[in-house]
Structures are given as C-alpha cells and as structure tokens.
Amino acid sequence: MSNFAPLIKSIQDVMRQDTGVDGDAQRISQLTWLLFLKVFDALEEELELTRDSYTSPIPEALRWRHWATDAEGMTGETLLDFVNGKLFPALKGLRSDAQRDPRGYVVRSVFEDAYNYMKSGHLLRQVINKLNGIDFNRQAERHQFNDLYEKILKDLQSAGNAGEFYTPRAVTQFMVDQSDPQLGERVLDPATGTGGFLVCAIEHMRKQVHNPAQEAQLQASIFGVEKKQMPHMLCVTNLMLHGIEVPSQIRHDNTLIRPLRDYTNADRVDVVLTNPPFGGIEEPGIEQGYPADVRTKETADLFLVLIKHILKPGGRAALVLPDGTLFGEGVKSRIKEQLLNECNLHTIVRLPNGVFAPYTGIKTNLLFFTKGQPTQYVWYYEHPYPPGAKNYNKTKPIRLEEFDAEKAWWGSAADGFASRVETERAWKVSIEQIKAAGYNLDQKNPHAVDVVSHDPETLLADHARLQREAQALRDQLKAILSQSLGANA
Predict the structure, then answer these.
(1) What is the per-residue pLDDT across 290-336, written as a single tens digit (0 to 9) for each?
(2) Which residues are 298's β-sheet partners?
(3) Which of 451, 36, 29 is nearest to 237 (CA)?
C-alpha cells in the first residue's frame, strides 16, 4: 500500500490544479472512471492470452492501450476533444445487453452517467501517465492496490454526502462472517454502494473454491443494485479487482422501483447483506409497488419489506438499521410485526454512537434474521467502545477484533443458539414482550446502569413513550369521569 499511497496523493494534487474538478467527490469520480478503463484493459490483456477468440466490446481506437499508454501521446486540447467528443459518447452509446454482451453492458452502465470533470488536457495527460505506473497484471501489485482502493473508498467519508456509501470494513466483515455465505448460494446487496459487503462475501466464499467449476459458480452468485453513478462505478471496479471477471450482475438502478409482485422464485436469493440508506425518502409513486398496509416513502422501511420478500425460505439476512426503525410506530410497527411473524429475528447487535461518523452520528443496529420460522426470542448484544475510548472517529474507526466477544458468544443457528447466555452485554426478549410493547424493538439492556442520554434519537423515543403513557392516563381519567357522571345522573 505504501508504494501506491503517494502515487494516488500526487494524482489528486494534479487534479486540484484543474479548474473543472471541485472537491473530493469529483476527484474520486474522475479517478474512478480512469481506473476502471485501465483495470478493464489489464483484464482484457489476460483474456487475450488465455482465450483465442476474445473480442473487446470497446472499439479498438478507444481502448486504454491505444490512447492512454504513450506518455508522449495526445495531450492538451487534442486529448480533451478525444475524451469528451469520442470516448465518452461511444462508451455511453454501446449497444449491449447483460445476456448477449455482458462486458459491453458493464462498460455502458459504468459510463452512462459518468463525466469528465477535467478542463485541462495537459493536467489530464499527467494524471494518465501517473496511473500507467501501476501494473494491474502483476498479482502482487493488484493485491496492494486492493488495499489502496479501500483507502480511496474510505476517503469518501469526508467527501460530503458521498460518505453514505461507505460501511466500515470491520462491520461488513463481521456481518459476512456471521452470515457465512456458502459457495452456490446467491448473495445480494440491494443497496450496493461501493461494494464492501459483496467484496467481503467474495473473499469469504473464495476460500471454498478449489477448481474452475467452483470459481465459475462463485462468479455467477454475486448480485447487487446501486442507484447512484459514482458508487456504482466504484463498485464495479472494486469487484473486477477482486476477481469478478464480468460484474454484469451489479445493476445501475433503484432496487425499490420494481413492484414486489414482479419478483418470481427465480429472483429469490439465499443471503442478503446490506446497509440501506438512512433517512432517505423515495420519489412519489414508488410505494405503490408495495402492499397497502406497509406503504411508506421511507427508504430504509421499504428495503426491510423488500429483503423479507426476496429471501428464499431458509434464506438469511444481515443489515444495518438506525434506532428510529426499532422504536418507530405506525407503518414501521406493521413492517416489524410481519418480519417477526415470517422470519426468526434471532439477533440485534446494538452499536454505539460514531461508527458511521462523520456521515452520521445516530446510533445503528445490526439485524440478523432467517426467513421461514416466526421469532420466539430476540437476542440483543450491546457492543461497547474499546477500553479507554469514548467515541469512534476517522483516525480511530471500529476494528474487527472488537467483535471477538460477539463471535465467541454467538453459538450455532443449528441448535437455535442454545449455547447463548445472558451477560452484562447480552440479553434476550420474548416475542410476547415485544408484542406487548407494540412491536418496539428498542429494548434496553436490563443489566445496564441508567445513564442520562442526550442522544436525539433516544430522547425522541423517550418523548414518544411518555406521550403514550400520558394519553393512557388521560383516557383512564375520562373513563372514570364518564362513569361517575353517569352514576350521578
């Protein structure tokens, strides 16, 4: 990683001199389409050596090797005219579909909303020349670059709202480890972002690959959908770097647009791993594709309905949700009731503040459930800060080793997690208690000492609870008054 970190920094320094590139998000977007074309070309070189009949979906004159690799090649206005006038229009206009020409489909979907922000052809030539210092055909360099790519993705956290697309690696790794996807299972992230969950799942399943047929099985088992252009482009490049030869099953689309009734058994999946956007509101009309009793415009709620629906019987899901979903009422309660009736929500890991900082400071939860059996008990595990820490931040993020206690406690789904025991961090709540609480999943740790909280989400939940209790008292008083007035009449 140390070889490439200065290189990427120097590329970003060059971009900062260009008047067309404004801020980290645009720099990363610009770097990503260039990286995509270079990585794509390197993978094509390998295919040309191993497959006699290989044909590129990109016209010969537009392939990276023909216009980018010569350090003394096109520059200035000539380069800009080529990129803006020929390269982008041609790649956006590739006529390909996912079945007949999956590679062409990938290229077009990556470029359909991409944009060349740079306005200086001379600075663009400098960036391209620097990128040509990386050899993606060398396995060692590619492995190193995977680490660096993680850093590029992490930089998104400080790129304004783009941080929403990054889930800390420790969290994705823990969720994948506990979900344990197996070779041959279909794995989906319906809000893919930059592909962190899918990359972790690929690495997890590749340990089970021992021959070409099993590798082909792995290649066909990874599915994702991402609505926004930049994270989709980052995701596709990320998967190519992690050995997914043709990431045509990563669609650039809004998962929620498709009505639930349109899903068939062929669309169902074994494992869902995702961090759906928090606090998002969908455009009008999307909720019409969902059953009337669970219609809402809230993105995270619709994803929960979708995930429950799209899982196969026996399929399992791990997802990140904010506290608001746990204690929310109305439609949220109906969604939770259906989830608990149709799935075994066996575990909720409660994360402390700051795991997703600086994108959001709200408290989040990891929900693990299996479809096909109703919930009897929900086990809760309260994840503590590491000793001496009072929060997480960019320089001190959550680390995978911190989940060792959860892993040791976890037990096996095969025996219904019979080995689990209550501790100061772990407790279980029966379905009867949850029903009695109006399907409120925001169940507090009974072993914890009460601490005054200033967290807005907690205060909001407490306020809602107090309002309900006050209303119940008012109703009782009205009933007593009505009875006494009736008796005196």
Answers:
(1) 989 999 988 889 999 999 999 999 999 999 998 888 998 899 999 99
(2) 281
(3) 36
Give domain 5-152's CATH superfamily: N6 adenine-specific DNA methyltransferase, N-terminal domain (1.20.1260.30)
pTM score > 0.85 for this model?
Answer: no
- What SS3 class is residue 20? coil
Residue 89 has a CB neighbour count (10 Å cut-off) of: 10
- pLDDT tens for residues 433-484? 999 999 999 999 998 765 455 667 667 777 777 787 778 778 778 877 777 7
The first and second tokens of residue 8, run together, are: 């990427």
How does DSSP assign 153-195, residue by residue? HHHGGGSGGGGGG---HHHHHHHHHHH---TT--EEETT-TTS
The H or E element spanning position 366 is strand 364-371
Residues making up the chain, counted from first to last: 489
What are the structural domain ranges in the chain?
5-152, 254-436
Tokens found for residue 146? 């995977």
Residue type, 170: A
CATH architecture of the domain with range 254-436: 3-Layer(aba) Sandwich (3.40)
Amino acid making up residue 192: T
Residue 62 token pair: 């537009």
The H-or-E segment that residue 408 falls in is helix 404-410
